[in-house]
Amino acid sequence: MVLKNIVLVEDERHLAVGIKYNLEADGYLVAAVEDGPAALKIMDERGAEVDLVILDLMLPGMSGYAVLEKLRGDGCDVPVLILSARTLTEDRTRGFDLGASQYLTKPFDLDELLSRVKNLLQHHPRRHKRVQPPTTKIEHYEFTNAQIDFIHFELKVNGKGIDLTKREWELLRYFIENEGRLIPRQEILENIWDMPGHIQTRAPDQFILRLRKIFEEDHTRPKHFLTVRDMGYRFLGQGTSEESEVAE
After folding, report:
1. Which CATH superfamily is domain 5-123 in?
2. Does 5-123 match 140-235 in CATH topology?
3. Less CB within 10 Å around the terminal CB: N or C of the chain?
4. Assigned CATH for 140-235
5. pLDDT in tens, 104-129
6. Between 89-97 and 64-73, two packed helices, what is the crossing angle to 10 degrees?
7. What SS3 state is found at 222?
8. Contact at 8 Å (CB) between 72 and 98?
9. Which are the contacts of 163, defined by CB distance < 8 A and separation ≥ 6?
10. Contact, 48 vs 24, CB < 8 A?
11. What is the pLDDT of residue 248?
12. CB of 233 within 8 A of CB of 191?
């Protein structure tokens, strides 16, 4: 039997100890942290192993809202149960808008917490990244005024060095290695974000907009990173004279 891994983000130590004790008594593996940066660090290190995050909102240094926004922005779709003393409708709404799975207010009933945890784990089983067939990896690529070095992860546009995040490098490489091919949106979600293709998220749009702002002469009228309405995306190194339909 594979034990479920839970990350508990709670700065009230006495409360965190009690929750951790009861979750472990129910057979879960629990890692408890007290602030937002520590939560993001453990998710970065163990993200593929984590089955559920229990997240307080009022955390020192970095709010739970900011933690959730960063996780979802990075494409992390692990279920998140917000556990907060904030009871206003706008707090709950903001949490759900940022991608929370459930919201439980403090003080809470322990049996209800355990029931919600069980429900989320049953309906959101951990997905394992699919093994992709080996492909020919491009080491260097140039187009327009950009020089890209995938070996040393160096990028220059108009002679100026530009830093990319790990996800941006992955997306850029995927576009270039599939140059000219229509790439369905669900394919990008599955292969770059390791998410089911049916998931509704704006994460790809945000990252593609970022690539457009870096590489396109006019990011509102892209010629290289194109959107094909209701179908997906296409990368053209030589560019196109036709206007693409920009994802908003």
Report:
1. Response regulator (3.40.50.2300)
2. no
3. N
4. 1.10.10.10
5. 999 999 999 999 999 998 877 665 44
6. 20
7. coil
8. yes
9. 155
10. no
11. 45
12. no
Q: How high is the pLDDT of residue 152?
A: 92
Task: Report the C-alpha gap between 236 and 217 in whole angstroms.
Answer: 14
Pairing mode, strands 232-235 and 5-9: unpaired
Range list of β-strands (E), the chain:
5-9, 29-33, 52-55, 80-84, 102-105, 140-143, 146-149, 154-157, 160-161, 183-184, 225-228, 232-235
Q: Look up residue 247 and give its two tokens.
A: 């994802």
- Is residue 102 within 8 A of residue 116, CB to CB? The reply is yes
**Taking the CA atoms of the chain, what radius of gyration do you get in angstroms?**
21
Tokens matching residue 195 = 């998410």
Bridge-based pairing state of the strands 154-157 and 146-149: antiparallel
Q: Is the pTM of this model over 0.90?
A: no
Write a three-state SS string for 3-65. CCEEEEECCCHHHHHHHHHHHHHCCCEEEEECCHHHHHHHHHHHHHHCCEEEECCCCCCCCHH
Cα distances from 80 to residues 58, 59, 93, 131, 242, in angstroms, run 15, 16, 14, 26, 42
Residues of the chain under the 50 pLDDT cut: 128-134, 243-244, 247-248
Alpha carbon distance 2, 127 (integer Å):
13
User: Any idea where the domains of the chain sit in the sequence?
Assistant: 5-123, 140-235
Render pLDDT for 20-29 as a digit per residue (tens, 0 to 9): 999 999 999 9
